[in-house]
Please model this.
Amino acid sequence: MEIERWDPWKELTTLHQEVNSLFDKFFNRVSQTQAARSIKFAPPLDIYETETEIVVRVALPGVIEEDIDVELKGETLIIRGECDCPLDAKEGGYYHQEWRYGQFERAIVLPTKVQDKAIRAVLTNGVLEIRAPKS
Model:
């Protein structure tokens, strides 16, 4: 029998993941049942850093550029907008719904200072890519 060293941090990380999963499941259920009330949701995103810039990629399928607002307040990048439900889907009703519709918002504290006047945002194939050059 092999003895395994107890790692309290590993158990704490596992507990943290389980609690996050529980909250995700709860809020997904709430937002699906109240979708018609325009509950804000947080679209998934990735953030990475290169030598010269911070890059944020946000999944926004079905959203058009005019419905997105990107703002930098201090060190916080705020992405908000609205994703409209297709008209034909509103009329027929759903058998199953996982896409989120309505208002969305994400606020991210950037890991380093950036040049606010040089931030660029481009929406391509449902992915919003924000490039913020480092100061």
